[in-house]
Write a structure and sequence with these properties.
With about 475 residues, the chain is α/β, with parallel strands linked by helices. The chain has one domain: Alkaline Phosphatase, subunit A (3-Layer(aba) Sandwich), CATH 3.40.720.10. It is built from 14 helices and 17 strands. Strands 1, 4, 5, 6, 7, 8, 11, 12 and 15 form a 9-stranded mixed sheet that branches. Helix 12 runs parallel beside helix 13. The longest helix has 25 residues. The N and C termini lie far apart (about 55 Å).
Length: about 475
């Protein structure tokens, strides 16, 4: 096939406009870049939102490695009676387990070492490891019956972020940015913050594709903010280059890129133009964002002592609130260290200490500032942990393997019904007995809060209309306010 003809046949709508009559190309390009100084929202699809949104933005506090729901949220008092006994076959029902425990002679039940008690007007039971979350329990909704298709970390993390177990699909933040655009022209629409937990065992790796845009234009990928040196790589001017020189260089490069865009209509050229301009504006907006000197002392006290240490989970929660104030559309926190196959009682204490106070502080802070009502907050990992012990079981120590059948996440704000608990698991916290919530359902519900019908937010790629929830997912109506 003629290469030129092949390119034309594969052309997107944008490429069509770019190749049409001389006057249409620039007009189409200016429309595509209408957010760059001309409108309230940069990018985004003109047909969105599909209906009135309850949330304008998302803060997703992802707990990488899988927190143990049995030791934090899902109280199972009968496990003390079953402690040390083998998990009954009638409970397991032949469900697959990982290679890490499949060779064990026994699968002994491990009761939680931690005490639970009810909190708030809702009477929601929480572990003693979460004293600060207990203070905001009436503002959150616990979802105890989340289910996933993956049983190992990388596929499970990829799945909950992108709706597919294999790499290559756009992340949830990218889908939201693509659909709704950015409400702040001086900051990215999708920002990523990463922290390392205090756990003593090895943490799972995190790959940049987890906040990648997949087959969407790359302008919708997440921008990682670092805690040291330049928050964003290559944002500062090189030595010997001042702001006016950089402006002149960007103007010249932008003109060249615009000419190429008119000729070829390649969306990635448009992305390059937009991102160069964004980087220039971020030279002023990012340092101001990262400068916490204006925060009063009581704010640091609320988030905890680590909030003054850049790169900690507490500091990232505080930054998430500042990003929400600036109308950044999607803020993704990744906190590593929850993979507790051994020495769980020791490491989960450390992880809870890292995250409990700051997570609760973020809810309080958003609520006081009137931001919680239109900010959807999500907390949770990629799957749960098993009721049976991995390795040696004792009265004071145990480990837990991966468990995709049921785990707990919580949501707050942005159209979510507060002070509720959704779903129920069996006495072993092994199977769902009431109101299962699949990962696709969770994604559909989050999009719904943003005014997006998950079945209509699509992108045509290689002849197929893709979406975050693939061909699945239902909005979980009981979670909605």
């Amino acid at each position: 096939m003629n290469p030129q003809l092949e390119r034309d046949l594969l052309a997107t709508r944008r490429q069509f406009f770019g190749r049409t009559a001389a006057g249409i190309g620039p007009m189409a390009l200016s429309f595509l870049l209408r957010g760059e100084g001309y409108g309230a929202t940069a990018g985004g699809r003109p047909d969105l939102p599909h209906f009135a949104p309850r949330a304008k933005r998302v803060i997703y506090m992802f707990q990488s490695g899988a927190p143990s729901q049995i030791d934090l949220f899902d109280h199972k008092p009968l496990l003390r009676k079953y402690h040390g006994q083998d998990l009954p076959d009638s409970v397991r029902k032949g469900q697959r387990i990982t290679g890490m425990t499949s060779g064990q002679d026994r699968l002994p039940v491990a009761a939680s070492l931690f005490k639970f008690q009810p909190h708030g007007l809702s009477g929601t039971e929480l572990s003693e490891l979460l004293p600060h979350t207990a203070k905001v329990v009436d503002d959150i909704s616990l979802v105890k019956t989340v289910q996933t298709d993956a049983i190992n970390h990388d596929p499970a993390i990829t799945f909950i972020q992108s709706g597919f177990q294999q790499p290559g699909r756009p992340s949830m933040g990218s889908w939201v940015s693509y659909g709704l655009g950015s409400a702040n022209r001086d900051l990215p629409g999708f920002v990523v913050l990463i922290s390392q937990g205090s756990n003593l065992n090895q943490s799972q790796p995190l790959f940049s594709r987890l906040w990648g845009s997949g087959f969407l234009p790359s302008r919708y990928q997440g921008v990682k903010f670092r805690s040291s040196d330049d928050p964003v790589l290559y944002l500062s001017n090189p030595k010997g280059i001042d702001s006016s020189t950089r402006r002149s260089m960007l103007d010249a490069v932008s003109e060249i890129n615009r000419l190429r865009s008119q000729e070829f209509g390649d969306p990635e050229i448009e992305t390059r133009i937009a991102q160069y301009e964004m980087a220039y504006r971020m030279q002023a907006s990012v340092p101001e964002l990262m400068d916490l000197s204006s925060e009063p002392e009581h704010v640091f006290e609320r988030y905890g002592p680590d909030s003054r240490k850049p790169g900690t989970y507490a500091a990232n929660c505080l930054l998430a609130r500042r990003l929400a104030e600036r109308d950044v559309r999607f803020v993704q926190l990744f906190h590593r260290g929850w993979d507790q196959h051994t020495d769980l009682p020791r490491d989960i204490r450390l992880q809870a200490r890292d995250t409990d106070q700051a997570s609760a502080a973020l809810i309080m802070d958003l609520k006081e500032r009137g931001l919680l009502q239109d900010t959807l907050v999500i907390w949770g990992g990629e799957f749960g942990r098993t009721v049976y012990c991995q390795g040696k079981l004792s009265e004071t120590n145990y480990g837990r393997d991966h468990h995709p059948r049921c785990f707990t996440m919580w949501m707050a704000g942005g159209g979510i019904k507060p002070g509720t608990t959704h779903g129920q698991t069996d006495d072993y916290c092994y199977n769902v007995v009431e109101d299962p919530v699949h990962v696709y359902d969770l994604q559909a519900t989050a999009l719904h809060c943003l005014g997006v019908d998950h079945k209509r937010l699509t992108f045509k790629y290689q002849g197929r209309h893709f979406r975050l929830t693939d061909v699945h997912g239902e909005v979980v109506e009981p979670l909605l306010a």
